[in-house]
Amino acid sequence: MIIPPKPTRPPESPPARPPGHLTWSATDGRLQALAVWTERRPGHGEDAEPLAAYHRPTGDGLLAVFDGSGGSGAAAAWRAPDGATHTGAWVGARIARLAAECWFQGVVDSEEPDTPERLKHCLRAALDAAPRTARSKVTGSMRRLLPTTMAAVRYRLGDEGVRWQALWAGDSRSYAMLPGSGLHALTRDDTHEDDALAQLRQDPPMTNVICADRDFHLSAQHGEFREPCVLLSATDGFFGYVHTPAQFECLLLETLGRSRSVGEWAELMRRAIQPITADDASLSLVALRFDDFTHLRAAFAERYDSVVRSGYRDVPPAGGPDAVRDWQDRTWQSYRPTYEELMPGVRE
What we know:
This protein is α+β, with helices and mostly antiparallel strands and 348 residues long. Helices cover 30% and strands 25% of the residues. It has nine helices and 13 strands. A six-stranded antiparallel β-sheet has the order 1-2-13-12-9-10. Strands 3-4-7-8-11 form a five-stranded antiparallel β-sheet, with helices on one face. A two-stranded antiparallel sheet has the order 5-6. It is globular and about 55 Å long.
């Protein structure tokens, strides 16, 4: 089992100042995995640590990220042993992470089905077990108890290909990145706005999140790739502060091209995203069926050249807001068909 470590300190030692970020990587045969986690306020970030788990005997794996919804879950919910107080959003994201990890371990260690309904049951049971002592000044339809998003990809690595299932609630996202066609969204945000560029401009409210005090739903989408592929899940701190959806792919490919190992790729992604994001940011990624990191990097070299030639990377240097908006609209219309090719349909 491959699971990112959490920062630890020796017993009885004084509390260390939180680092505000964490990167992690691992390689196992034709599997290469990494995770990136950053906080805007060290020690108080509402993204849980990313989850990346892999079960060697079966070739089953799970990627997942969790973004506590700070607006609707801003009430204090837990006081740590060092005296730090954390919000319901902070707690909810970490409870959801624990529940997802327990769900994955349960399904790989038994013959139980790995259905969205079973995952929802695990999430609900964990949230129901949490104390409900928080009070908030936020009332009405916006208030939630222990609210969090989740984007996860359950996959199975085989000799012939990779089967995958995306599971999500809220506006965190999962993607596939393929050498021939680039970045494909596997999820659709739980918002009333379905256009990814409009979502960047508006940041619309979510219509569904995991929480303890109301019903929620998990959406699911599945498929299979016969070629080597990259799967990833990310919170909106990674993809929500670029100019267009294509620029998130540019960030992934540019840092990949400058890296010499999967661990360096994780570190370069962290350094690239921290100066531009205005939120906590977390990402969990796995590259499957590439022979080694050199093969992985070479496989995407032509794709990176293509996105640069298409003008997706660089914002117009002059012309003001109207020129930027025209560039966004133009490049999004050419990029959108491939980006949305694997997305599920619009929910009724």
